[in-house]
Automatic annotation (TrEMBL):
PROSITE patterns for this protein: PROKAR_LIPOPROTEIN
Name of the protein described by the UniProt record: ABC transporter permease
Keywords recorded for this protein, A-Z: Cell membrane, Membrane, Transmembrane, Transmembrane helix
Membrane topology listed for this record: Multi-pass membrane protein
């Protein structure tokens, strides 16, 4: 019996080749999209999930309560890790971790820039980063030790074995001994590094770390087996009160989060973990399900559209004794066989597009065809798809009365017609939601790219101040200004797109002593305002003509409002105990991601040529404004200048607009994926609409012929055939519009500065849906209108 069903299924697929190709192609596209999305989701969930001690690894985050606000983040005091390990029995291991920095290394005649961090002695005992050379106990056991990656070891010494115990010079400032070589980090790591410095060395060169009032490093702990996480979190909630001064106006609390959950749940709102990349996981998981459902609905509609071709077959088989269960198994078997063909085609499609998909998402994914688990999962997906897509056609076709079928008096029930129309409506609901969402996401990305940040990021170049440049800032500035194509040069600590140093150490006359206010701050050089093309609201820029500018401050408009001076220029301001005065108010500009609101900012003058400190706090960044179209020759001149002044350090630079674009990589990927999946969903939906139009045309062929005989025009017949489909699209739009508005409203809340949800977006989306529907059904409608009247009415 099973063999008979299989042979019939093969014969039917082969007999109706065009129908089979459309069906298989629709299912294959849906399955391929779903596979790609599920692979991406799986890859995202694997990030940081490979550590053997993963269930015991926790990040400590700090919540700060001030001025009625609650800020939260992973920046903690630099002494917190070792103090938690000392005072909390539940903590077995602990490590501070510095933020990523790019530094120069020299060994022999090789000088390269590498990216790395600083970490505590326990680091390699906590995390599963295998060592190629050295031991986990000694890797970071002393301030002079450094651990490097295999890639870095090969780059400098030829192999990991040759690198161990060698000396390598860091930023032409200090020598380290390579105590361990770790395997290159896998792709599924959220915090990347090619070297790790010892935490004690970080503290020796950065004395601010030893102050409990300063935040910056991360704190990661590993609990003892069986430790109660909830009780430990309760114990450390007010841990900092014994080490830092708190008041009624300000206090902070500590919390714990599984380390492997940070990547997906790294966003805080009002002091609570409120999401992050998990939003995109949920979003695209739904898209995967929806696209697969759209493909299954296509199969249902296309199969029922072809039902009239198989009515006599069903009638004859019932007369010969076939029961309904046998017919149901037959049709579901055909659907599963179609799904199997589609699955193999989907795998081929995924293999072909995977390189491009990896480039788009920035991943290194591959289809795990060598794993039995993959084929098992694919088999379940195929079986699910086949059963879902074949269930309705099987029940629909097997329920026909054999007498009515063979007499030719069979009529369709209204319920089945409405069900098919409901499926197509559901398809277009999903498609219109994707159209609206894609337009809005694209608009937000364009808004970000074209937004007026308050400064001109075009033709602005960043050059890190490292090595000998830190002692020759003024020399570099003078010689750079003599380079053809250079308009202006200044410097600052950090760069304009990532100012994140905050302090409460600011005082002014009339400040409420019971409150504690936080200000973002940075040091800048002369000509900062003019080089950045910032606008002054009041006062002036720092000037060499005023010696008192060494204790002068420039504040932004938000800071001026917080301070509250009616006329702030010339008024006193104290920064970290250094009393000075406000010399200017700069108009607000965005110095962070547009996810964040503009915060109070204080700029101080850096008029020294002293070298920068150890670690990521180097001497800052040169900002060079260049003439349009002169980038190539300016960069060549600046490289030559840097090689002359700073021969032990490689020349490096960044364009401000490119650095800004990198802030929104996730949104850009989301936008591109939305466009791709929206187009595919629309295409697959069109196949479903085509199926319904074919079915309708077959049912109304004689009616159309009679109307033509009675003198109906082609235009009126086209309107008659298309009006029903357009009404489905209209219903789908009415359902989809509010859902899309709500979804996009929620998504846009993560941006402090965002585009509006304009009415014309919904009008445009509705028009696109209507045009797509008309384009899909027009071919079949025209074919029906031009039907041969003799053949159509022969039986009447």
């Amino acid at each position: 019996m099973l063999n008979s069903h299989f042979r019939i299924a093969i014969r039917n697929l082969w007999k109706h080749k065009a129908f089979s190709v459309i069906n298989i192609a629709g299912l294959a596209l849906g399955m391929a999209c779903s596979l790609l999305i599920l692979l991406w989701v799986q890859d995202e969930k694997k990030v940081d999930a490979f550590h053997a001690n993963g269930p015991r690894l926790y990040s400590v985050y700090e919540k700060m309560f001030h001025e009625g606000l609650i800020d939260a983040g992973y920046a903690t005091p630099g002494l917190l890790a070792e103090e938690l390990k000392r005072s909390m029995p539940e903590v077995e291991k602990a490590s501070g971790m510095g933020w990523s920095s790019t530094n120069s290394f020299a060994a022999g005649d090789k000088i390269l820039k590498e990216e790395g961090r600083a970490a505590g002695t326990d680091f390699f005992e906590m995390f599963s980063y295998p060592l190629v050379e050295g031991s986990v106990q000694e890797a970071l056991s002393a301030p002079e030790n450094i651990a490097i990656s295999r890639r870095m070891a090969v780059a400098f010494f030829g192999s990991a074995a040759k690198a161990i115990h060698q000396t390598i010079r860091y930023d032409n400032h200090r020598d380290f001994t390579i105590s361990a070589v770790f395997e290159d980090l896998p792709a599924n790591v959220s915090q990347r590094f090619d070297f790790l410095l010892n935490w004690e060395a970080m503290k020796q060169e950065n004395d601010w770390i030893t102050d409990w009032g300063n935040n910056g490093p991360e704190t990661i702990i590993m609990l003892r087996p069986g430790a109660d996480v909830a009780k430990l979190e309760q114990k450390i909630t007010n841990f900092l009160q014994d080490y830092n001064r708190h008041s009624a106006a300000f206090h902070s609390e500590l919390g714990l989060q599984r380390y492997d959950e940070r990547y997906l749940h790294g966003r805080f709102e009002n002091g609570q973990i409120s999401g992050g990349r998990i939003t995109y996981i949920k979003l695209f998981s739904l898209v995967a399900v929806f696209i697969l459902l759209i493909a299954c609905i296509n199969f249902m509609n296309l199969t029922t559209a072809r039902s009239s071709k198989r009515l006599k077959e069903i009638g004859v088989r019932k007369v010969l004794g076939a029961v309904r269960g046998q017919l149901v198994r037959q049709f579901i078997g055909e659907a599963v066989l179609t799904a199997v063909c589609a699955a193999f085609l989907a795998v081929l499609v995924v293999l072909l597009v995977m390189p491009g998909f990896n480039t788009l998402t920035g991943k290194q994914m591959s289809l795990p065809i060598h794993l039995p688990l993959f084929w098992g999962a694919l088999a379940l997906l195929t079986l699910f798809t086949g059963i879902i897509s074949g269930s309705y056609p099987a029940l629909f076709l097997s329920g026909f009365s054999p007498i009515k079928v063979l007499k030719g008096t069979l009529s369709q029930k209204a319920g089945s017609s409405w069900f098919r129309k409901g499926l197509v409506t559901f398809q277009f609901v999903l498609s219109i939601i994707l159209i609206i969402s894609t337009i809005l996401i694209s608009r937000q990305i364009s808004y970000i790219q074209d937004s007026n940040l308050g400064y001109d990021r075009v033709n602005l170049v960043y050059i890190p101040i490292d090595g000998e440049l830190s002692n020759q800032k003024d020399v570099f500035r003078q010689e750079a200004l003599n380079t053809p194509g250079v308009v202006a040069v200044t410097r600052m600590l950090g760069n304009p797109t990532s100012l994140d140093s905050r302090t409460s150490g600011i005082d002014w006359e009339g400040r409420n002593p019971t409150t504690k206010s936080y200000f973002t701050h940075s040091t800048v050089g002369y000509d900062y305002i003019s080089t950045m093309h910032l606008q002054m609201a009041q006062g002036r820029d720092f000037s060499r003509e005023f010696a008192t500018d060494s204790v002068g401050y420039i504040v932004n408009e938000t800071a001026a409002k917080k301070i509250g001076y009616k006329d702030p220029v010339g008024k006193p301001l104290t920064f970290w105990g250094k009393r000075g005065h406000i010399i200017g108010v700069v108009k607000d500009f965005n110095y962070q991601s547009l996810h964040n609101t503009i915060e109070p900012l204080v700029l101080r003058l850096d008029n020294s040529n002293a070298s920068g400190v150890f670690g990521t706090f180097q001497a800052g960044t040169f900002l060079v404004r260049i003439q349009p179209g002169k980038a190539r020759q300016v960069l060549a001149g600046l490289e030559q200048l840097c090689r002359k002044l700073n021969p032990r350090f490689p020349f490096s630079y960044q364009f401000a607009d490119e650095e800004y674009t990198r802030l929104y990589k996730s949104e850009q990927v989301t936008g591109r994926l939305s466009v791709i999946f929206a187009v595919l969903a629309i295409f697959i939906s069109c196949l479903g609409l085509l199926g319904l139009s074919v079915f309708t045309a077959e049912q109304r062929a004689k009616e159309i012929s009679i109307r033509k005989v009675m003198g109906a025009s082609a235009a009126s017949l086209f309107g008659l055939l298309s009006s029903g489909f357009l009404s489905l699209v209209a219903i789908a739009f009415l359902i989809a519009a509010p859902i899309a508005w709500w979804a996009m409203h929620v998504w846009l809340q993560q941006f402090a500065y965002k585009t509006g949800i304009s009415w014309w977006i919904f009008v445009l989306s509705g028009m696109i849906a209507v045009l797509i529907a008309l384009g899909t059904i027009s071919f079949q409608a025209i074919k029906t209108i031009n039907i041969n009247l003799v053949k159509s009415l022969r039986g009447e």
